[in-house]
Amino acid sequence: MISKPAAVLLGLILAAGCGPALADDGDCGGSPCAGGPWLSLAGNWRFVSPIAQWSVAVNDSGRFHAEGPRSVTIGGEQASYISTLAGTISHDRVALSIKADNFSLPNFVPGPATICTGVPAGPGRYEGSCANGKQRLGFAFIREGAATP
Asked: By mean pLDDT, which of 86-90, 101-105, 118-122, 123-127 is the weakest?
C-alpha cells in the first residue's frame, strides 16, 4: 500500500505529464529524450552544420523562424541575399528548411530550399541530415544554456 504523501506526489507527477519519463537516466536508449515530455521546448536553440550556424528562438508551440543577411561569391562577384531558417520542433523530431531569397545579382534564381530533419540524440540535442538535390550534410540542433524543467 502506498502512503498518502507518496500518493499525492505521484498524482502531481502524473498530472504534470511526467509519468514514467522521470525514470529516464538521460541515456535515451533509442527513445526520445531531447526535451522529455515534462520540459518545454521553448527557448533559444542553435542550428549547427559544417557550412552554417544559426541561433533561433523557439516559441511555446515549437515553431521558429529567423532571417539573416548572407553573402557569397558567384563568378568572382560578391552577391548578398537573405537566408531564412524556419521549422518546428517536438519531443520526437525537428524539421526545418533553409531558403535563400532576394539575391543582389541580376538574373540569379536561387535553387530549392534545403530540407533538414532530425531526431533526439541526448538531452537538449537533436541530430539529423539536410538535403538539397544530391547534396547531403549533417546538422545538430542544440538547446542553448542549461535545460530547465
From this structure: 101-105
- Closest listed residue to residue 127, CA positions, set 136, 115, 119: 119
Is there a contact between 119 and 35 (Cβ–Cβ < 8 Å)?
Answer: no
Q: How much helix, strand and coil, in percent to the nearest 5, is found in the chain?
A: 10, 50, 40
User: For residues 60 and 72, which has the higher predicted lDDT (pLDDT)?
Assistant: 60
Residue by residue, DSSP assigns 60-121 as TTSEEEEEEEEEEEETTEEEEEEEEEEEEEETTEEEEEEEEE--SSTT----PPEEEEEEEE
Name the grid cell of 37: 515530455
pTM of the model: 0.69
Nearest 10 degrees: CA dihedral of 16, 37, 67, 69? 130
Instruction: Report the distance separating Cα 24 and Cα 9, nearest Å.
Output: 18
Neighbours of 47 (CB within 10 A): 24
